[in-house]
Each structure stands twice: as C-alpha cells, then as structure tokens.
Write a structure and sequence with these properties.
Number of strands: 16
Structural class: alpha/beta
Strand content: 15-25%
Strand order of the largest sheet: 4-14-13-12-11-10-6-5
Mean pLDDT: 95
Radius of gyration: 20 Å
C-alpha cells in the first residue's frame, strides 16, 4: 500500500481524513500515544491497541543510545521488537537538541554533538544520521531533523534557527529512502512570527514531503500566541497532505488545533498524568490522590468504557495510589489513553456530521480548566 492522505469531510477548517501506510490506516484527527523508548509506560502494547490507538510515537535519540538502532535492525526492526504491528512515527531527535541542551556540546551546520544522559559518552547527530537511524528502526513515518527554537526568541534568532532547520530538512529529504507505504514529514519552524512560519512552510512544500508537522510550539508560549501562530501557518500547508502538531497536548488544546486544520497529535500528558494520580474525565481532571475519593464508589468517568472504569472504583484506585501500588498508575494510564481515543472519535464524528463548532462549545463548557505541562518521557 502506498502512503497517502484522503480528506473525507470538512467542517470549517476542521478536517476528517485518513492516512494510509503499509501497516494500516490511521483515522484522523488522531492522537499518538508516546512510546519514547519502545514502550508506552505502564501499558502492554495490546492494551494500547485496545484503547483504539492506531499509531505510536517512538524516539530516535533515546533508541540510538539504548539499545541502539543497529541492534534493533538486527532484531527485525522496531515493530517486532516491541510487539506493535501498526504504524510507528519516530521523532528525529530534534526536540532533544532543545530539551537536553545542557548536554549539547556543539551545534553547527553539520549537526549536533551531545553528551549521553545515560553514560556521558559523546555522540554526533546529523540530518543524515537521524534519517539512517529511523530507517534502521523501520519507522513508517520518519521526521526530518530540525532545531526546536527556544521561546522566547528574537525575530533574528528565530529566523537563523528556522533557516538552519530548512537546510537540514533538505538534507533529511535527500537521505530518506523512498519505499511504498513509508513517509517523511518536514517540520515547520519560525517561533511565533507569522512571516517566518510562512517562509518555512513554503520552503518545506518546495522540497516536497509526504506530510508536514508544526514544531516549535507548546514550548512555553501563551495559548493565545500558539493558536494565532497555528492559524497563520495553516494556509501555507498543502491541502492534500497530513498535518501534525508536535507535543500537543491538553484536551482543550487538541480541540482548538483541530478547529484550525490539524490532523495528528502526540503528547506524554495522558501517560505521565496516569503515573501522577491524575485522571482525565469529560467533566475535567481528577486527582485520585485526594482524600475526598477514599470512599467514592463511582467509576473514574461514568461515561467511559475502559477496564478501569468498568471494573474499579475511585475509592479503590485512591487506595492503590496512596499505598504506592503499581496497579494504580497502570489503571489510570489505561483510562487516560482510552479517554484521549474517545475524544478523537467524538471529534471525527462531529466533523463528519457538520456539528463540530457546537460539539466544541459543549465540550469546553463541560470540561473546565486543567491539565499538566507538555513534554517528553
């Protein structure tokens, strides 16, 4: 099967589509659980699939350090290695250039030299090496190597960073081995400056990628600036390719981005929150560590069909959390991932039925405010 994107419905700028790969299709808008080191924390792969997830995100930087890309390739690739038969997208390592910059020893036109956070050894990551690693991992969707720009950044600094990423993007595209059903996505940068975002999007479209990601957001900028930047970027992204907003995030931020034309998302929030006693519900987040849940016999979310909600009470999960039992984080992680997949199903249905704006209003009114910071794990 060839890689492709089909637009199935539109409601305003919101898009309902389908991404096809050699390992199956992905219904969009879609949320990708994060399995940084070839595992979604506290979850079995079959449990992740049972939530409705159709694609996972894994990470080039972490897997190149441990167990090593060449070793994964020797063992048959990432899919059999981690027992996941559906598509996998691999982050290029560019975000770690940003998030682990304290370990960065050198960055220039060639690439980045950094010190391993595991054992202090030095490594060089270039666009070519990043693409090679992702090829060895056998990623269905490869990400171009880029620099995630600091926020805040001056216009001059953001322009310099973005243009370096565009030169790296061309080298990434040239290093990518085209195969049926596989894809490489370019990443739009430019901080919160609309003119730089336009320049970046046009440069990537000129190179020619299978999909386009919006990077360099959800890194500390105010929500209003993020949405304004996304709104200014979207018109310059090709209509016939999937659009991926990296590192987002909170349920209300996902809904806002869908309204602006985004198709794909990833974030550690549902899994990290599950390990810190937070559960997402249709009425807002709950902290199951709180004493008020000690005798609460209701499910986490009465409208949720996940195993944690069908079989266990808030009181029991509260007990597990307070007792330090690992089953507590496991159940909350399962619930949160299920919640996110339910959210995406509801979004897709609302777009198809032409009621996305009304659905969003009800969703936001009921949800309230809450959530954690974006990031990686």
């Amino acid at each position: 099967m060839t890689f492709g994107y089909t637009l199935l419905a539109r409601d305003g700028r919101a898009r309902r589509g389908r991404v096809t790969t050699s390992r199956g299709s992905i219904e969009t808008p879609a949320f990708m659980p994060v399995g940084t080191a070839a595992t979604v924390k506290a979850m079995m792969p079959e449990s992740v699939a049972a939530t409705g997830a159709e694609i996972l995100l894994c990470n080039t930087y972490h897997l190149m350090l441990r167990p090593g890309a060449e070793r994964v390739a020797k063992l048959g690739g990432l899919h059999p290695f981690m027992n996941w038969s559906k598509p996998i997208l691999t982050d290029s390592g560019g975000y770690q250039v940003f998030s682990l910059k304290g370990l960065r020893k050198k960055m220039d036109e060639t690439g980045v030299v950094f010190q391993s956070h595991l054992d202090g050894s030095k490594h060089t990551l270039t666009p070519e090496r990043s693409i090679q690693i992702q090829h060895l991992l056998d990623a269905d969707i490869t990400m171009a190597f880029d620099e995630c720009t600091d926020w805040p950044a001056t216009h001059a600094d953001a322009a310099k960073s973005m243009r370096l990423s565009m030169r790296w993007a061309r080298r990434s595209r040239e290093a990518f081995v085209d195969r049926p059903g596989y894809a490489i996505f370019g990443i739009v940068q430019g901080s919160t400056y609309p003119d730089l975002r336009e320049e970046s999007a046009k440069a990537l479209a000129g190179i020619g990628f299978h999909g386009y990601a919006i990077g360099g957001l959800a890194v500390g900028e105010p929500k209003k600036e993020r949405e304004e930047t996304l709104a200014a970027t979207e018109p310059f992204l090709p209509e016939d390719k999937p659009r991926y907003m990296m590192g987002v995030g909170k349920p209300q931020d996902i809904v806002a981005a869908v309204a602006l034309g985004v198709d794909m998302f990833d974030c550690v929030l549902p899994t990290r929150s599950g390990r810190t006693a937070q559960a997402f519900t249709r009425d807002g987040p709950l902290n199951l560590r709180n004493a008020k849940f000690a005798e609460d016999t209701r499910p986490i979310d009465p409208e949720c069909g996940c195993p944690a909600c069908r079989r266990y009470t808030r009181a029991y999960i509260h007990h597990l959390i307070r007792a330090g039992e690992i089953l507590g984080p496991m159940l909350l992680t399962w619930h949160n991932l299920h919640y996110y997949q339910d959210l995406m199903r509801d979004i897709r249905a609302a777009i198809v039925e032409g009621r996305f704006a009304a659905w969003r209003e009800g969703f936001e009114r009921r949800l309230g405010v809450g959530g954690e910071e974006n990031g990686e794990e």
